[in-house]
Amino acid sequence: MKKTVRSQAALAAVLLLACATGFAQSPGETTYKAKCQNCHGVAGLADTGMGKALKVKPVTDPSVAKFTEAEMIAATKDGMGKMQPYKDKLSDAEIKAAVDYFRAFLK
Questions:
Q1: 15-26, pLDDT tens digit by residue?
Q2: What is the 3-state secondary structure (H, E, C) of the chain?
């Protein structure tokens, strides 16, 4: 009887862990949500109050969509227009991951 209870408890723990892992965010998504989403919006459409006030262009705008990954990383590091620079606030890996997440909105 104890063996059955332990087996069921172990199975429940494994299932819980598997479900929790499925809901985990990528590092890029986490960084984007914390640092970028306020202006660039949930889907990169700059449809937030701050995005509209600052006249941020959506990811679908041809002038934004034409940027290469390297250009977006540089813009994030050094700032662009009214966007603050993040080179002293985020690591290179965090910036690249956030840019990759943002660029995924183009697809």
A1: 454 444 445 689
A2: CHHHHHHHHHHHHHHHHHHHHHCCCCHHHHHHHHHHHHHHCCCCCCCCHHHHHCCCCCCCCHHHHCCCHHHHHHHHHHCECCECCCCCCCCHHHHHHHHHHHHHHHC
Tell me the fold of 25-106.
Answer: Cytochrome Bc1 Complex; Chain D, domain 2 (1.10.760)
Q: What is the reported pTM?
A: 0.75
Q: Domain coordinates of the chain in residue numbers?
A: 25-106
**Greatest alpha-carbon span in the chain:** 68
